[in-house]
User: Which sequence fits this backbone?
């Protein structure tokens, strides 16, 4: 059991972690997610007593790490696979740790077997690949057969077989009743491994909930609608009609439309009424990855921009098509179709413009419709939207889970920036 | 505060999940491996494994032995063949080991710094401090293991050179060394060099950067003499004198009774000076280790 209360860490004027409170329970794999630089590793170091929090506390089994009796037998950690003296053999490295923790030396050979490094046990770790380094780090974490395990990015550099192995290892460790706390930025990996998620961005808690709740709270299922390419006016006509009916429409790179807030049959009806032919009308289920992207995109510190190559670009020969940009590249809002609450909000809240999303223009096609004045057509559209189980909106400041039954108290998510759409 | 309420339903909801997992009741997992209460002895064993399992130890100590013995023998041959009886009259035959030890001290400094700073350079220190949250114990174990290794190796090399010199020059006018002279030129020098290495280890722990700490320590050894050479002005004479007397090479030469100056530290003074400096630096390193982030 790991418990953090109001954990804050400042380096000079940079706040790495701010007022973070969470619990990691035994018997489950808890994923710790966040973009690069969001404070995951800092938090892990504070859990292990390596960094002193500026304020707040974090305890393991009720003790701060540095006061924990028999700490290496209670907690094992993989912080950084490269945190090994490269000139020392794998076996000598583990042996020195075992001796330090009062663990019998034969345990070293056991864990070397568990991670599959027996063959290279006497080789210097300098020559290890990243994946072998990870295995050595995992071996060090398992050395004390501890009750609490922390892994910082354990699958970095592992091959598919290794990733599968780590995934099963985590689950097996948790099934034995241990507390397993795994940080990652690989959402897809966490979707398969974790039971519970703690998501942070810029050092603050964004979500603390089960994987299932996380997906339903943060992923909007949307419909992809495609009109005939040859007739762009149909597309505009349809978006106007859909927006009129209370849907949110986002244009996609290739000419399709992402529609949220309207059920598929209703979209079809509207298209029919507007006399627009459809080439595609498909349901799209957002993955955990998209849910995560949406949640964290406002707090990403390092974001790529389009490579302009200004002044370096040659004139395209006449008639040549410029290359199509890859969808999502340099487009901040790409992964973020409005989540269900946002799509639903204009109906649920008569005072639409006061919401953080009400006032912003909804893209080139969305501006005139639903915003501002209550729409007479909105009412019939609302029930299907709200038929979906209302999900809690994560509240960053409350730092606690909301029981799924209380979404009404959730104000609009303030961590979502304006560019979230 | 309303923050206390939300966890309750959540905890209740999580409970069935935990029970669904085999063996997943709240107290969690308990290991079949017996739990041993760790103490300094465990840390010493660990540090011994660490210091003997890296090549830099072999390299630095090997070069150290080579320098001490090689330069010692060369000096011995040179003195034996060229110096006349008049030159050697009243000289301490053991004192010709000085040059090898002075050069070799750089190797001991390097090993001392590497013992602590390389853990910071590689990130290994995080693993170590996770395995042993009692940071003072780790520093103490490093200091003890390093000191013993450095002392033993220095003693062996220096004694060998002293014996060779003593037998080489026994037929000349050089004075026959007394027991006290022998003791100072072997054990005294070894203690001093091991303490100098320990000071480097402590500086390595404070600076946490190998190259930086090695540079500082070499500067500490050489700079006072070099600076003193350029202090020609008479107003600086006292400072110059002090630098000459208390620079580390001068202190080292006190053990061989051939000090660069006639005043200044004598007898076992250099050892007490070095002990005081090292103890102060150790206290500083300990305090920093406790308060700083690893």
Assistant:
């Amino acid at each position: 059991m790991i418990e953090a209360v109001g954990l804050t860490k400042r380096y000079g004027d940079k706040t790495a972690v701010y007022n973070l409170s969470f619990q990691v329970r035994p018997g489950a794999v808890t994923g710790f997610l966040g973009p690069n630089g969001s404070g995951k590793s800092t938090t892990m170091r504070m859990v292990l007593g390596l960094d002193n929090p500026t304020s707040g506390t974090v305890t393991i089994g009720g003790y701060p790490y540095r006061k924990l009796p028999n700490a290496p037998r209670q907690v094992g950690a993989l912080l950084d696979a490269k945190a090994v003296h490269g000139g020392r053999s794998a076996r000598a490295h583990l042996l020195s740790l075992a001796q330090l923790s009062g663990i019998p030396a034969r345990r070293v050979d056991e864990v070397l077997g568990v991670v599959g490094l027996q063959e290279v046990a006497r080789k210097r770790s300098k020559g290890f690949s990243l994946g072998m380094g990870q295995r050595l780090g995992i071996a060090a974490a398992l050395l004390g057969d501890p009750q609490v395990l922390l892994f910082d990015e354990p699958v970095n550099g592992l091959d598919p077989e290794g990733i599968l192995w780590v995934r099963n290892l985590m689950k097996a460790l948790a099934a034995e009743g241990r507390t397993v706390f795994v940080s990652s930025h690989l959402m897809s990996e966490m979707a398969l491994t974790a039971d519970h998620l703690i998501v942070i961005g810029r050092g603050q808690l964004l979500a603390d909930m089960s994987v299932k709740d996380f997906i339903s709270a943060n992923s909007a299922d949307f419909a992809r609608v495609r009109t005939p390419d040859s007739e762009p006016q149909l597309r505009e006509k349809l978006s106007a009609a859909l927006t009129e009916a209370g849907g949110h429409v986002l244009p996609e790179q290739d000419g399709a439309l992402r529609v949220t807030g309207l059920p598929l049959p209703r979209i079809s009806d509207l298209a029919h009424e507007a006399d627009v032919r459809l080439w595609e009308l498909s349901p799209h289920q957002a993955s955990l990855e998209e849910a995560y992207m949406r949640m964290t995109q406002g707090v990403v510190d390092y974001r790529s921009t389009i490579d302009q190559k200004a002044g370096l670009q040659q004139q395209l020969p006449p008639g040549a098509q410029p290359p199509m940009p890859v969808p999502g590249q340099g487009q901040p809002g790409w992964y973020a179709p409005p989540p269900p609450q946002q799509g639903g909000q204009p109906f649920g809240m008569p005072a639409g413009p006061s919401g953080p999303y009400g006032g912003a223009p909804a893209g080139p096609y969305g501006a005139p419709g639903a915003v501002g004045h209550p729409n007479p057509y909105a009412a019939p559209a609302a029930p299907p939207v709200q038929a979906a189980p209302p999900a809690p909106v994560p509240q960053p400041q409350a730092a606690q889970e909301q029981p799924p039954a209380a979404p009404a108290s959730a104000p609009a998510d303030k961590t979502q920036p304006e560019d979230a759409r | 505060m309303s923050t206390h309420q939300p966890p309750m339903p959540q905890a209740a909801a999580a409970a069935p999940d935990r029970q669904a997992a085999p063996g997943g009741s709240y107290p969690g997992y308990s290991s079949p491996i017996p739990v041993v209460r760790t103490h300094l002895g465990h840390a010493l064993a660990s540090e011994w494994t660490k210091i003997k399992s890296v090549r830099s130890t072999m390299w630095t100590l090997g070069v150290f032995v080579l320098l001490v013995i090689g330069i010692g023998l060369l000096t011995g041959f040179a003195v034996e063949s060229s110096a006349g009886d008049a030159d050697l009259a009243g000289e301490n035959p053991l004192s010709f080991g000085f040059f090898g030890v002075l050069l070799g001290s750089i190797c001991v400094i390097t090993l001392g710094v590497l013992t602590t700073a390389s853990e910071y350079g590689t990130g290994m220190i995080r693993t170590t401090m996770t395995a042993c949250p009692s940071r003072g114990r780790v520093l103490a174990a490093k200091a003890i293991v390093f000191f013993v290794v450095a002392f033993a190796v220095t003693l062996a090399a220096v004694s060998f050179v002293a014996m060779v010199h003593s037998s080489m020059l026994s037929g000349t006018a050089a004075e026959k060394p007394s027991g006290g002279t022998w003791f100072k030129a072997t054990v005294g020098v070894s203690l001093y060099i091991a303490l100098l290495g320990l000071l480097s280890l402590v500086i390595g722990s404070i600076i946490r950067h190998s190259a930086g700490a090695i540079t500082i320590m070499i500067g500490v050894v050489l700079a006072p003499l070099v600076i003193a050479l350029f202090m020609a002005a008479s107003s600086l004479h006292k400072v110059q004198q002090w630098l000459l007397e208390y620079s580390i090479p001068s202190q080292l030469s006190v053990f061989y009774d051939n000090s660069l100056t006639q005043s200044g530290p004598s007898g076992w003074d250099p050892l007490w000076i070095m002990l005081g400096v090292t103890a102060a630096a150790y206290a500083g390193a300990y305090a920093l280790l406790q308060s700083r982030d690893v």
